[in-house]
Amino acid sequence: MRALVAGKVGEPGDVLRLETRPVPTPEAGQALIRVKATPIHASDLHVLRGRYGFSPEFPAVGGQMECVGRIAALGPDTEGLTLGDRVVVAAVPAVPGPPMAGTWQEYLVADTRRLLPIPDRLSDSSACQLAVNPLTALLLVTRELDVQPGEWLLQTAAGSTVGRLVIQLSRHLGIRTINVVRRRAAVEEIRAIGGDEVICTEDEDLVQRVAEIAGPGGVRKAVDCVAGHVGAQVSQALAPGGEVVVYGALSTHRQTDPAALTIPLQARSVIYETKAVRGFWLNRWFGTASPEDALHALSQVRTLVADGVLSIPAGRPFPLERFTEAISLAETAAHGAKPLFVFEDDQNKDDR
User: Fold this and answer.
1) Geometric angle at alpha carbon 337, from 331 and 339, rounded to 5°
2) Which pLDDT tens digit goes with each residue over 335-349?
3) CA-CA 20 to 30 A from 51: which of 61, 79, 128, 330?
């Protein structure tokens, strides 16, 4: 089988190579998955650069998050699934614990407790993106912050994939959103997809505009994917007792020095207004949630996507051979469609 393998830590375009590897054999409680599609996430590239929250043992197959495929074989005494079943693999590594095999390969072995059956009416493009961004949006809004109907939710990076999903989910739940973007050109687009209010940091003061929008009651709940100066402004804009959950650091996208990943908070605001800043990492959530709870949350996401509440934009397919082009697109600002590695059913069908 073909696999995209990184021999060491470094820039993805420099360290990745296309290799031929033997198809793995599933053990008890495992399934062999014939991968159909798998996305290229920024976090996948950060893993290869050595700037993420875990590091695999190199050489390592790339793609550490999610994919969709069909069950090609089952390990001994493995029940509850059938050959040919179409499933999503929640490949997000549990913390603590070692990462599982990467998804950028034609076949992979996965614990059956990580597998979610997927109806054929969901495209491969949508299915292979269920387990990270939509799940993150659902958990942030409903579990981490428990935002109630009628409440304000402040979020940065509103134009990102998670940001757009937060807007869609919030409208469905009756939550009002204040959405922060960097470019004036993005304002109308965010309004068009349902954002109630939009703040453009290109020419607006974030703290002042939040106060004007939310009024005396203020905003008590926020999610931030930028960190740095913008993350600090979000904390400052919160009402006393407010809370911001930080789940990304886009302001330091290519930074590999951990000391540079900061949020310069105001001590007076944190102490005297008892504001809270805490993190959320999907990997750690998977590491602490029971398999039943994780699959339940993924089932909720599957239903929201199947019912049209959450819309996942179609990805742009690439074969593994064009990985340099695909990774370059993933790194391009405002690149539009997410690049996906796709595998045709008739490719290498006899290589086992």
Assistant:
1) 60
2) 678 999 999 865 444
3) 128
